[in-house]
Amino acid sequence: MKKNKKVIITCAVTGAMHTPTMSDALPFTPEDIAQQSVDAAEAGASIIHLHARNPETGEPTGDPKVYEQFLPVINERTDAVINLTTGGSPTMTVEERLWAAMEVKPEMCSLNMGSLNFAMFPLADRYKSWKYSWEEPYVRNSDDFIFRNTFRDIEKIMNIMGEHGTKFEHECYDVGHLYNLAYFADRGLIKPPFFIQTIFGIMGGIGADEDNLMFMRKTADKLFGDDYHWSVLAAGKNQMPFSTQAALMGGNVRVGLEDSLFIGRGELATSNAQQVSKIKRILSEFSLEIATPEEARQILNLKG
Ligand code: KMH
Ligand code: ZN
User: Fold this and answer.
1) Is the CB of 107 inside a 6 Å radius of any atom of ligand 1?
2) How many CA atoms lie within 13 A of 189 on its CB side?
3) Which atom of ligand 1 is found nearest the CA of 97?
4) Does the keyword Nucleotidyltransferase apply (predicted)?
5) What's residue 135's pLDDT?
6) CA 253, CA 228: separation in Å to the nearest integer?
7) Entry pTM
């Protein structure tokens, strides 16, 4: 792993899994997504990871026209690195998922490195109420969803977005996903250094256990040596503890309402910026410095 002098904070502001009925703080209109992104950047996030949502219902959408309603505002009011999803939501086709990223050609985009069962709720119930808690942030009645990321899907996204010079946030939800990345690297389809986001505590992926944090890190070290930047996100209650541990181990962090709606035990966060401020405050207690967007661009060698 490459050890940066400064920690890169990514903020994932809305995602596709949480719904507006779960928290009033979750932004879904273009205005709110823009404002919360600006606030998160001002609080210390140098990368903003974005999904779009139907402004009326909050449902995930891949439509670039919706992205166009908030991206220019964020670009005008911050110099944050824009990172667009290519994961979309587990119900979208790969084409829908790529639609906005292909148009926008952002500095960064996500690239999910394998298929998995992904905790979700039946579509019919999405905008009604359901069980949702600090202990169990993902609802367990989604037994028939596959978040599809076949080798062909991955290669397609890699080729199309690679041609635009977009840097990938390689989303690795389990150990095998690291090996998948190594496979593409071995084939020469992608060049290091990689930005690897190891993900813990998504139901269907590797659990949020400390041993697993070490294991993912050691496996990445074994496969990629120091040719990768490491970042960590953990869902729900594990978000802050795992981010903190990763930063103490020389990694980078991701927070945001996409990954957890909470700020503390049982307490909903009031905004994305609140989570960014919290992790920044924790890291500053350990004398860890935060990378500015410009520093993040240099560290990750982004196209700018
Ligand atoms: N929802 C996160 C766990 C993507 O946008 O491509 C992973 C994610 C996927 O951010
Ligand atoms: Zn995402």
Assistant:
1) no
2) 17
3) 6
4) no
5) 62
6) 14
7) 0.95
Residue 290: strand, helix, or coil: strand
Residue 15 CB–ligand 1 contact under 6 Å: yes
How many Å lie between the centroid of ligand 1 and the Cα of residue 15?
7
Domain 6-300 = CATH 3.20.20.70: yes
Round to whole Å and give the CA distance between 243 and 258: 15
Distance 105 CA to ligand 1 centre (A): 18
Does ligand 1 lie within 6 Å of residue 85's CB atom? yes
Closest CA to 88 of 72, 70, 102, 74: 102
**Worst-scoring range by mean pLDDT, 151-155, 159-163, 217-221, 233-237?**
233-237
| Closest ligand (CA of 13) | 2
- Helix, strand, coil share (%) of the chain residues, nearest 5: 40, 20, 45
State residue 2's pLDDT score. Answer: 93
Q: Is 88 in the pocket of ligand 1 (CB under 6 A)?
A: no
Looking at the CA of residue 88, tell me the nearest atom of ligand 1: 5
**How many degrees, rounded to 5, is the angle at CA 254 between CA 276 and CA 205?**
140
Q: CB–CB of 244/282 below 8 Å?
A: yes
Pairwise CA distance, residues 153 & 168, whole Å: 14
Please state whether beta strands 52-53 and 60-61 pair in parallel, antiparallel, or not at all (unpaired).
antiparallel
DSSP-based three-state secondary structure for 165: coil
The residues, ordered by sequence, that sit 6+ positions from 153 with a Cβ below 8 Å of its Cβ are 94
Q: With residue 176 as reference, give the H or E element that holds it.
A: helix 175-186
Please give the distance, rounded to the nearest whole angstrom, from the Cα atom of residue 83 to the centre of ligand 2.
9
Q: Which of 260, 275, 181 is nearest to 227 (CA)?
A: 181
Nearest CA to ligand 1 atom 6: 87
Q: Among the atoms of ligand 1, which is closest to the Cα of residue 109?
A: 6
Average pLDDT in the chain? 92
**Chain length of the chain:** 304
Dihedral angle sign, alpha carbons of residues 30, 45, 165, 216:
negative
Which one, of 173, 134, 138, lies nearest residue 17 by Cα? 138
